Structure formats: structure tokens, C-alpha cells
Amino acid sequence: MKYEILYPEAFPVVRFFLNRGEKIKAESDAMIAMSSTVDVEGKMDGGILSGLARKFLSGESMFFQELAANRGDGKVLIGHAQPGGILDLELDGSYGLRIQKNGFLASTEGIQIDTHVQNLARGFLSGEGFFILNATGRGTIFVASYGVIHPINLEQGEEIVVDNGHLVAWPDYMDYKIEKASNGWISSFTSGEMLVCRFRGPGIVLIQTRNPDAFKGWIQSFLPGTSNSGGVIGSFFGND
């Protein structure tokens, strides 16, 4: 399938060129524009149980968009709500891809998306929760991020420590563990990092250059009722 990622430096979108009969799967509400020859329909990948699992366990939408060129060749333009990057990845069927919440954007036919259950410790401690998305099959998958997507390629035995708020995706054959950022809990708390993920190679870990939770906290600091909002808002309007 032919496609191109437009405006990769700022707010990217993906333009697909569908031949008649071709279809893509995208996250709910991802479609920006499409040819009149293309139909869009809500689908639950894997049936109602998988849809419910995505909604209530991983926090994703129950439905995907299926965009199919049923009446002739056509184009589809898709994007995502976050101000960040889009990266295309080829899966050959030999491994799956673990994806953090809001990381899946779209895929070609042949890719299945379901939920993966993390173990108790990881689910309780990580920002991802007990359930994350798992992509398997053969085809192209598009992942989205908050900020730019940066790949970290680990050699055999090499380790990397990642703030779990910056994770986007990683192959299912890579093992990782959740641990304190520092030796002690107080030091981890005062450092502002708290919990991190330690990955061990070989494999490629995809991270995002911005943390959605940190941005949310920054926005909340300007809202009425927060400790420093009055000073910021007052100076904005010229008040003493």
C-alpha cells in the first residue's frame, strides 16, 4: 500500500493512496479527510470482548475506524490529537509490538490489535496500568506520540533506563522491569522521577520526547484554585 507521512517536523499526518478494495484500520476519530470512493465504518477488532477490554481495561476506544476504498481508488488523510510525531513500522509476523496508551494510530490489513496483561507488579507501578495494547501480524503499523519519537537501539546485554511517561512502544521479546529512579524512595521522590523502566537489549525501544502527565500538571498549575495560578494569571492581566 502506498502512503506518505506529511509535515513530519511539526504536526504530521498520514496520506494513504488506496487501490480499489484496499482498506486500513485507524484509531477512532483519526480520519481527517477521504475521497468519496472511501467508506468509513466502526469495527471492533477481535469482537465485542476485545473491544470491551480495550475500553475498560486499557482506556482505549472500543472501536477502530475501517476505511475501505469500496467504489474505486481513493485517498485518506489521518492524524492524531496529540502534538507529536508519527512513525511507520513494518511487522513481519515474527514478534509483536507492545504499545502504550494512545500510541496506536493506524495499520494496514494483516495487523491485529488486542490487549496484553502485564504482571501485577508492572501493572501496579507503571503509568501504563495493568493492560497495554499488543500488535501482531504482518503489515505496517503507525504509532503516534506526544513530542518526537526517538528510537533507542540496544545491543545484546545493553541496558537503558526510561521514564515510563516517555514510553511509546517496544517489541514483545524485550524484557523490562519497573524500579525506583534512585536508591531510596525519598531520593526518587525528590528527584521528580519516582519510577522508571529498565530495558535490556537486544531490541529497539521507542520513546517520546515529551511526557503527557508532566504537561497536564503544568497546565493544571495555571488553573484557578492551584497554588501558583493567581500570580501567573495576575501578571498576565497586568495585576499586582
Task: List descriptors.
single chain; 240 residues; eleven-stranded antiparallel beta sheet; 5 helices
Notes on the structure:
It is globular and about 55 Å long. The model is unreliable at about 50-60, about 120-130, about 185-195 and about 230-235 (pLDDT under 50). The protein has helices at about 50-55, 120-125, 185-190, 210-220, 230-235; strands spanning about 1-5, 15-20, 25, 30-35, 40-45, 65-70, 75-80, 85-90, 95-100, 105-110, 110-115, 130-145, 150-155, 160-165, 165-170, 175-180, 195-200, 205-210. By secondary structure, the protein is an alpha+beta fold. The strands form three sheets. Strands 3, 5, 6, 8, 9, 10, 11, 12, 13, 15 and 18 form an eleven-stranded antiparallel sheet that branches. A four-stranded antiparallel sheet has the order 1-2-7-4, with no helix packed on it. The chain has a three-stranded antiparallel sheet with strand order 14-17-16. The chain starts with a strand and ends with a helix. About 15% of the residues lie in helices and about 45% in strands. A hairpin with a 6-residue loop joins strand 1 and strand 2.
Mean pLDDT: 80
The secondary structure category is: alpha+beta
Strand content: 35-45%
- Low-pLDDT windows of residues: 51-60, 119-130, 184-193, 229-237
| Total beta strand runs | 18
User: Can you count the helices?
Assistant: 5
The geometry reads as globular
- The N- and C-terminal alpha carbons lie at a distance of 60 Å
SSE order, one letter for each helix or strand: EEEEEHEEEEEEHEEEEEHEEHH
Q: What helical percentage do the residues reach? A: 10-25%
**Biggest pleated-sheet summary:** 11 strands, antiparallel
Radius of gyration: 20 Å
